[in-house]
Task: structure prediction
Amino acid sequence: MLPLDDSGAVGQPSFIQRYDIIATVLDLIQAAWIKVCQKPEINTQSDEDTIAGALHNEMWAEKERRGIHGPPRIENEVATRRSNKSLKPDGFIDFKMVYSCNSLEDYFGIECKRVSSTKPDRNLATKYVLEGVKRFVVGTYSIGHDYSAMLGFVIDGKVPECIDLICDRLNKYKGDISLKEDWIDEPGFGKTPNLYRTRHLQYGQKDLMMILHLFLIVN
Result:
């Protein structure tokens, strides 16, 4: 594979294109999600951890089906630390897509949240922002990284309505999440449906972080 740029930013591997690993992860998620939705134990009442766990298992199965023996290594419910001197985790992120054996920080981080635009679950949009997006911004997850992602598990089947509600919450808490670029479509990773992005200034960092937002409908 072609070498990446030599900026030396955390979260950028030296042996694999960053775009390639993210595109691969997004493609694996889409294929694995079809299998997740076929599981009788996964439904709109399932909690976030159960859905994410099913996705983890199916992503590994999809890697095997494709004969992918290298990166990414898919880790679920993994500890994160703001500093390599931290003795205790600052948090536990839903997914680390690890693409290097040389550094603990060479990963693409993904946090998952259930979302809905329908009562009584409209408050999930606030949790998506303050308990998801904000954890990247304050450095609980993916400190110093330039890319990360949110997965929205849509439990009411209404993706456009959920997006509208989340955008409203993003604007409401714009200062809390250091929002520097408004919500836009993200066309840079192939034909991935329901993929968007925002840009934020992560606390203590000089460069903006791009957060991808991918929505998956729970059947």
